Give the backbone structure.
Amino acid sequence: MRLVTPLTDEVLEQLHAGDKVSITGVIYVGRDAAHKRLVAALDAGEPLPFDPNGQIIYYMGPSPAKPGEPIGSAGPTTSYRMDPYAPRMMEVGLKGMIGKGNRSLPVREAMQKHKAIYLGAIGGAGALIAKSIKAAKVIAYEDLGAEALRRLEVEDFPAIVVNDIYGGDAYEDGLKQYNRE
Amino acid sequence: VSEIHTDQITETVARLCIESNYFLGQDVLAALRRYRQAEVSPVGREVLDQILENAELARTEQMPLCQDCGLTVIFLELGQGVHITGGDLDEALAQGVREGYQDGYLRKSMVDRPFSARINTKDNTPPVIHTTVVPGNQLKITVAPKGGGSENMSQLAMLKPADGREGVIKFVVEAVRKAGANPCPPIIVGVGVGGSAEKAVWLAKHSLLREVGQSSPDPEVAELEADILERVNRIGIGPQGFGGLTTALAVHVETFPCHIASMPVAVNIQCHSARHKEAVL
């Protein structure tokens, strides 16, 4: 299914764990250090560098862009490290997260509560994924280098729904289907 | 006695940093293709195809296979007849990392003050260096960039001698199960058995330098590797955790004698972007 950002509840209601999607539009990029600052800003009652309403955050820290390229390699990082921050971001309207790997129970519960989804991109396919990124711009926390907050314009960015708004989990489904112990 | 100048070492390390990050080894590619043929999960097959496509793209466009260009682990086998000239060996290695990560557009992922400020060193230094002194007049340098996602899934257990072979298998299988989708499966499982706590971890990491799928020369260890691989691939995690038969491409085990009271077992998981390149000076 083709997703265009920002995401709406109507679209999210149609998605189920295991669905393949391609994303087009603007997505935001932040990982460990950027999340720490985003949540600190929320706690201090300060405005965020972007409006998270209906948006997707991609957990990623790119390699440097070669001259003439918008970005270097740009695959997902492991998501559980953002688990301490993710529910807080969903409270302020975040609707999607892209990363790789398993999420904690509180994050999965928060996704059901706030109607948000978690998407898996292919870890270690950073060169391939970069092809779907048409523009990239650092919008805050430039001092963090690879960990700075970025705004990307993407076209047909490939991902798989890991957690839907109904509590479905593609990793659990996969284990159930293929476990031979 | 032979003389090796530090400039030559720096140049070599810089080149190996770039080559290891751009070019996936033929052994890894062959293993990925072999498992792609045997995989029954449709999404698993698709993921393996994209991993292979990514490797081809990285090679032809000369860009990093993965945005995580790793913490730079360097293994040295230093011949005892070698005389290093021109300066400090560790500094020559660090300079190689500095140049390679700069010139190769590789991501700098090292932070200093790890438990507090976490300030990026901006040149991916310092590397982690393991030096072994060996007979001969040559210096073998292996650069093995290691991604954080898979390194974070490492485990060490000080098992009881009574736990035996089955205890080792269970510990490794549970480490892989717990890692789940996090370390970018399909993985290569590095295992160290014996020695001391730190020796076991070193063995686990060192085993990852072996050609993927090549068994241990020790038949008893080779059999253990095959049994663990079979068990690990029964879990069903599959490529990227979406389910399937291909959770691990290989299990590599290295052993060392240990204390009568101990049986250290370490697991060091390697993602499918199993990068290492070597040179002999």
